[in-house]
Amino acid sequence: MHRGKGMKFVGDSRVSAERKPNIPKDYSEYPGKTEAFWPNFLLKEWLVGAVFLIGFLCLTVAHPSPLERVADPTDTGYIPLPDWYFLFLYQLLKYSYASGPYTVIGAIVIPGLAFSALLLAPFLDRGPERRPHKRPVAVGMMLLAVASIVYLTWESVEHTDWELKEEQGKIKAEAKIDTNSEGYKIFQEQGCVSCHGDNLQGGAAGPSLVDNGLSPEEVAKIAKEGVGSMPPGIFKGTDEELKVLAEFVSSVTSK
Predict the structure, then answer these.
(1) Could you say which protein family the record assigns here (predicted)?
(2) CATH fold of 182-250, please?
(3) 205, 192 in Cβ contact below 8 A?
């Protein structure tokens, strides 16, 4: 048999004979269906994000967030309340199974399980379908989470005394108090600080005395006879001390 007779050489057209550098795919073959991630898609995402960011900044300038008075750790009657987007967690901590000795369950365990389920959702349901009824696991988990958040938020709003909350958080006028004056020393000695605060700013048990608009005679009368929740006979000093105290309280202004 002669050399080479009966033999055939087969080449694979899928293997390029020449090494070529990595060339990005020509997306013009699929108009309107796909595009390059960089820079086309990413640039669009940045532009949309910038529009929302600018809009949010304009909203904060047009409607500033309502501020409350400076936090007072000695005011035990103050009701702390989180922002609206955390009200569902605030409501969760009111239930017996998630509060008291079980606070860890309400503050860490339940939210941790919820966020873990959210992170695992893409792995629990890996189907290619986009229709909701064909992805029951992911859709069911999301609907359950949304329904829980809406219900707990609604319950928190319904069971919160908003008028009391607004009154407690109201920014009250402050005044520069001469702590070395005789009137202030009598104010301290008579125990007025415990109800009206060391700067006369008021507290849970007593109103603010700044800009009270009372005359010395009216202040003296209230100190002796009481008013509202303030019982009579609280002042135990002399008439001279009462006069000094009344003049001091009536002169306290925020100007």
Answers:
(1) Belongs to the cytochrome b family.
(2) Cytochrome Bc1 Complex; Chain D, domain 2 (1.10.760)
(3) no
